[in-house]
Write a structure and sequence with these properties.
187 residues; mainly alpha; two-stranded antiparallel sheet; 69% helix; 2% strand; globular
Amino acid sequence: MTDRRATVTRTLEAADGGDRAGLDAIVPDVYDELRRLAGSYMRREREAHTLQATALANEAYVRLADQTRVKWRGRAQFLAIAARAMRQILVDHARRRDAEKRGGDLVRVTLSDTAATFGQPVLDLLALDEALTALGALDERKARVVELRFFAGLSTKEAAEALDLSETTVDDDWALARAWLRRRLGG
């Protein structure tokens, strides 16, 4: 883990203990993590997307800063919560746009930035969200693994840490979830 990542982890843990000044001090590092994550999301979006990475990072930051019930355990958990917030922001954005266009162009995401593909170069974000919701109803842990590995871009080790699982379990869940999603999404 780099010094910066370790600092973010220690400060998030301290903030959970009441050290708000420490949390304020790492806002630039936390925001950099959010921008990196938002940039990763937006690279998977269609070219003419109206939402920019900076706007996505800003919206996610506002949602995360408002979290009062979260017990921060470190960087991996922070990125997991940020990934979920960004996924929801993008899904909400896509739903609003589709409602306006009544079925216009669908928001597309690729899975090529991760270790696996589903046999299709791009997927509909709304269909992926529906599939992940269905997977979560069957097996919440596998859906969380997908969220962490794909949406947050976490490594197997980081996802295992965030979920308090072994790396082998995360690898197994990741493989099974990809196969389930491939079938569900018609790939």
